[in-house]
Design a protein that fits this description.
Number of helices: 13
Enzyme class: oxidoreductase
InterPro entries: FAD-linked_oxidoreductase-like (IPR029041), PRODH_bac_arc (IPR008219), Proline_DH_dom (IPR002872), Proline_oxidase (IPR015659)
Number of strands: 8
Helix content: 40-55%
Keywords: FAD, Flavoprotein, Nucleotide-binding, Oxidoreductase, Proline metabolism
Cofactor: FAD
EC number: 1.5.5.2
């Protein structure tokens, strides 16, 4: 049960300082984080695109405390979109945003997050791409879905994320599938109480399959966020049974994980999108990647021991 412990550590300033200072951290972080700046990430987007892969870009950073920081987050995405426009990469790269980074948890946070994300969605549309709203802990979801619904009034391609481990998600999936939304399904990577979330991994996998079926049978565009070979195979079969063409759904995986499988799926004609994070405030994102897979933690520990 290492996952909950690591997730708790992701909120600890003491652990943040320890992990940041560890000799092996930089090596491991580089596996999951594509760099610290736009200049770092743009060549990676170009390389992935040249290999037939699509990209969703996440400027990492969640724990903001001021309105000024929320505006800086907005501006970071606008800078990214400007660079993608210069290079003609708009149709190959979309954006993923966390509304907490745009001020959702601050005073009047719902209105602030909407005001910050709207120009990002508009700028993305101008270069031929779109934005997906990432799901965070369960207390933020009603606000996220309301912002998603509002943005879709003018930009219907705006996507959102749902998490299989939450009890509410099957109902959310039915609603989103019926209204034709772009929806990424993931298992879930936040520490949630048993009152709102499934705690047993096999039961989470079963819920994931049920939700995939709802999305594949619906009117929207499913985005299957998983590295699990079994769930990927089930997703392919559900798409086939639903009569979906290869461009009517996609798979998504994290940058640095199962790269060979990413290329295999793309070579078979599937749309394969790589979730690519960059930025200096990487700690929370990095810790959730460790929590998701024990092998990632072992890799990190070995790196500390060999570099120490």
């Amino acid at each position: 049960m290492l996952g909950p412990v690591i997730l708790a550590a992701s909120r600890s300033d003491k652990m943040r300082r320890f992990v940041s200072a560890a000799p092996g951290t930089k090596q491991v972080v580089a596996r999951f984080i594509a760099g610290e700046s736009v200049d770092d990430v743009v060549p990676i987007v170009q390389e992935l695109s040249d290999r037939g892969l699509e990209v969703t870009l996440d400027v990492v950073g969640e724990d903001i405390t001021t309105v000024e920081q929320s505006h800086a987050a907005r501006d970071a995405y606008l800078e990214l979109i400007g660079r993608l426009k210069e290079l003609g990469l708009g149709e190959r790269a979309e954006m993923s945003v966390k509304l907490s980074m745009f001020g959702q948890s601050l005073e009047n946070g719902h209105e602030l997050a909407l005001a910050n994300v709207r120009p990002v969605v508009e700028a993305a549309a101008e270069i031929g791409t779109t934005v997906t709203l990432d799901a965070e802990d369960h207390t933020t979801l009603d606000s996220m879905f309301a912002i998603h619904e509002e943005l879709r009034k003018t930009h219907p391609q705006t996507g959102c994320v749902i998490q299989a481990y939450l009890f509410r998600t099957e109902d959310d999936a039915r609603r989103l599938a019926a209204n034709g939304s772009r929806v990424r399904i993931v298992k879930g990577a936040y520490k949630e109480p048993a009152s709102v979330a499934i705690q047993d991994k096999p039961e989470i996998d079963k819920a994931y399959v049920r939700i995939m079926k709802i999305l594949m049978d619906g009117e929207g565009y499913p985005m299957i966020g998983s590295h699990d070979p079994r769930l990927i195979a089930v997703g392919q079969e559900l798409a086939r049974r639903a009569g979906r063409k290869l461009d009517e759904y996609e798979f998504q995986m994290l940058y640095g994980i199962r790269s060979e499988e990413q290329h295999r799926l793309a070579a078979e004609g599937h749309r394969m999108r790589v979730y690519t994070a960059y930025g200096t405030d990487w700690y929370g994102y990095f810790m959730r990647r460790l929590a998701e897979k024990p092998a990632n933690l072992l890799f990190f520990v070995r790196s500390i021991l060999t570099k120490g």
